[in-house]
Amino acid sequence: MISFRYHVVSLCAVVLALALGVVLGASSLSQTMLGALSTDRADLSGQVGTLTAERDTARAEQAAADRVLAGAAPSLVGGTLPGRTVVVVAAPGADPADLEALTGLVGQAGGRVTGSLTLTDAALAPDRADALRGLVTRVLPAGVQLPSTTDAGTLTGALLGSLVTSGRGPTSSPAEIGTAFTALADGGFLAPGAAPAPAQLAVVLAGDAASGPDAAGRATTLAHLAGGVRDGGAGTVLAARSADGAVATARPDQALRGLSTVDGVGTTAGRLAVVLAAAEQAGGRAGAYGASPGVSALPQRTPPPA
């Protein structure tokens, strides 16, 4: 007769066998998975190492090319901006190193940077467009005509173009110019600072391409602002470190075809392109330049306009 104790022992044996099977199976599966993961990790580590080496090589080559171009800069740009004056309009995030390098190259080209304006985030924010549009129309100097549009970027650019331009269109008095700059700064659209002296040419220097839900709106506002500066009286170059953002917005826009664009301004080649593009603007020409596909690396050097 089978005793109760026999049933208990049998049941325990079955449970132990199942547990042992689970443990052994899990161990085997774990070893298999760990082996596969180790192999994948080794493959990924190798790919990361290869990509890191390629990046370092590309950086070294870029640095070498920059050194060569920097040495050749005086001959490449010398005499292209004889006696020309340039103002810089810097967007939020623009690298001060780019402004400093461009100032030096303009000097090597025979020109002079009269100063800079720094836009704030609010100047490009879609939710501040109505406030900016209203302010622009209130501080407009006498005799200055704004374009027939409600686009805040275009209107702001046209106002700035009229304020910083010399030699074209109506000339605003120093008091009117000071009042307008002060109002824009007090409204939070310009960083506080001394107003630049009037100039014949302008460089709108973009920051890093914005991200987020309003990135496209900010890029469009900056592109339109650059076009407005040109329409306001100053031959204008829109320059950025990448071909994204405002530069990408401006290039296919037929309404901005009179605007020159340059990407890669973080490199010596890009900075040289900005100066040569400004010289083209002085001669009434425009183009697209930089390292991105479909554009020329540098503008063709031409004799400066008389």
UniProtKB/TrEMBL annotation:
<feature type="region of interest" description="Disordered">
    <location>
        <begin position="286"/>
        <end position="306"/>
    </location>
</feature>
<protein>
    <submittedName>
        <fullName>Copper transporter</fullName>
    </submittedName>
</protein>
<dbReference type="InterPro" id="IPR021522">
    <property type="entry name" value="MctB"/>
</dbReference>
<dbReference type="Pfam" id="PF11382">
    <property type="entry name" value="MctB"/>
</dbReference>
